[in-house]
Amino acid sequence: MATPSHHQNPTPSTKKKKTHKNPEANFLYELNSCSKSKDLKAAISLYDSALSNNTRLNQSHFNTLLYLCSTFATDPDSKDLALRYGFRVFDHMMALNIHPNEASITSIARLSAAKGDGDYAFEMVKKLSDYQVSPRLRTYEPALFCFCQKLEAEKAYEVEEDIDKMGLSLEEPQIAALLKLSADTWRGERVYNYLHKLRRSVRWVSEETGKVLEDWFCCKASEIGSDVGSVKEAILRNGGGWHGLGWIGEGKWVVKKGNVESNGRCCCCGEQLDCVDIDDVETEKFALSVAGLALEREVKANFREFQDWLEKNADYEAIVDGANIGLYQQNFAEGGFSVLQLDAVIKEMYTRSGNKWPLVILHNKRVRALLENPSHRKLVEEWMANGVLYTTPHGSNDDWYWLYATVKLRCLLVTNDEMRDHIFELLGSSFFLKWKERHQVRYTFLKGALKLQMPPAYSIVIQESEKGSWHVPIVCESDEESLRSWLCITRPGGCEDEGKTGSTMGTCEIVNGPCCKSSENRNNEKCDDKTTSMTGKRKERSP
């Protein structure tokens, strides 16, 4: 019996290995392999071979070589080779009239900084404009860090000015470097300004940045003061947590590391931390932004009518997203709009605010349906009589109404809406998350019982008090905030508890065990005299 013949398909092993036909592509492929494996010597060997073979080089070849050389420029064993070939490759690139891009300049700037030449690194960054290319923050870093390390303050500040002109924002590593430079060169006003830049940029600082701050405050005695009244006004205007008017008080600083209680009380000095809000200017911009977008998307006459009404009824302390609460956990067969849930929230907010009714925003279609229901009519009429309800008109999106009211009146907002949809993306506000943390009240109903999650008692951000003290949160790996360490930076007598303890500077309240340690002087050469180590002592809590 004849057997049918079959065409044998080639197995993977019989397939020809794919190769690049042109030498330029082959060279780039092999260079990228060296880059992935971090093999500088192999890359240099390939480069030398390409030169011998007159291989035509392009920007990608040069950028890969420059990147590898800059990567090894700080490695003690490879530094000389990396620097020698790095500058040779760049000179070759320029000789061929191949324009560098941002990646090329970043690499050559890193090589220059590794050689200690911050001036050339900065000069290279400025040359990017000749090629109509915009630098990135990483492009400036080599020059900035080089000047900071060499204590060339004016040059570092010039780099910072250029970064600002380009519309780029400093991050913690750059701010910390400038802060340390200013501290090392005794520029107290600069230190103060960079501390505020840190406050605006990060919620908490790294251990390394915390160490820079400890060193500065442990060795610095300042005698700059400000009018108490103006300080309080500034803190209120700024939304709490800072005043920005300069150092306050006199004498040496006392630096301790400890924890903050769940109610926001520092266990080292007893000071109450703030729940920080956005400032007056940001609030006004936010309200105008919401109103502007609402007027574009809503019937103008309807929203303007709401704005006018709100101007005349501006004494509410809480806004309630009625639909969000009424429809909470109602996705079951008999579910609908829960009037009882909404009424529970209304009454709870009334009690919490000292018998002031909240404002409930609810669509008029929903209100009509409730009034037509005999079992709900009386309760809804009671809300209306108490001035609790504002009904939004047909075709409107009530999100615009409750958001605008909350921002404009600077009050609380009861909703579980995470405000992540396209409406809130349109706002594009850098301070939106801070605003939410300060104003949003979340809720749950467990077996019909209401539980409100109020805004936190305090904000986990760098804080400056009206007494001149500072509290700086340190990065924490645990999700348990009670375990987070804070730098507590005060002056003798600046805080109430320290004033009571007189000269016993190490005394502090202990909550759940020892929570406060004084920073030891680390033999910083710029200090005139040494600060003795102080440990926290237990103190009885007053009843």
UniProtKB/TrEMBL annotation:
<feature type="domain" description="PRORP">
    <location>
        <begin position="260"/>
        <end position="488"/>
    </location>
</feature>
<feature type="region of interest" description="Disordered">
    <location>
        <begin position="518"/>
        <end position="543"/>
    </location>
</feature>
<dbReference type="Pfam" id="PF16953">
    <property type="entry name" value="PRORP"/>
</dbReference>
<dbReference type="GO" id="GO:0001682">
    <property type="term" value="P:tRNA 5'-leader removal"/>
</dbReference>
<keyword id="KW-0819">tRNA processing</keyword>
<dbReference type="GO" id="GO:0046872">
    <property type="term" value="F:metal ion binding"/>
</dbReference>
<keyword id="KW-0862">Zinc</keyword>
<feature type="domain" description="PROP1-like PPR">
    <location>
        <begin position="15"/>
        <end position="222"/>
    </location>
</feature>
<dbReference type="Pfam" id="PF17177">
    <property type="entry name" value="PPR_long"/>
</dbReference>
<comment type="similarity">
    <text>Belongs to the PPR family. P subfamily.</text>
</comment>
<dbReference type="InterPro" id="IPR031595">
    <property type="entry name" value="PRORP_C"/>
</dbReference>
<keyword id="KW-0460">Magnesium</keyword>
<feature type="region of interest" description="Disordered">
    <location>
        <begin position="1"/>
        <end position="22"/>
    </location>
</feature>
<keyword id="KW-0479">Metal-binding</keyword>
<keyword id="KW-0378">Hydrolase</keyword>
<feature type="compositionally biased region" description="Basic and acidic residues">
    <location>
        <begin position="519"/>
        <end position="531"/>
    </location>
</feature>
<protein>
    <recommendedName>
        <fullName>ribonuclease P</fullName>
        <ecNumber>3.1.26.5</ecNumber>
    </recommendedName>
</protein>
<dbReference type="InterPro" id="IPR033443">
    <property type="entry name" value="PROP1-like_PPR_dom"/>
</dbReference>
<keyword id="KW-0677">Repeat</keyword>
<dbReference type="InterPro" id="IPR011990">
    <property type="entry name" value="TPR-like_helical_dom_sf"/>
</dbReference>
<keyword id="KW-0540">Nuclease</keyword>
<dbReference type="GO" id="GO:0004526">
    <property type="term" value="F:ribonuclease P activity"/>
</dbReference>
<keyword id="KW-0464">Manganese</keyword>
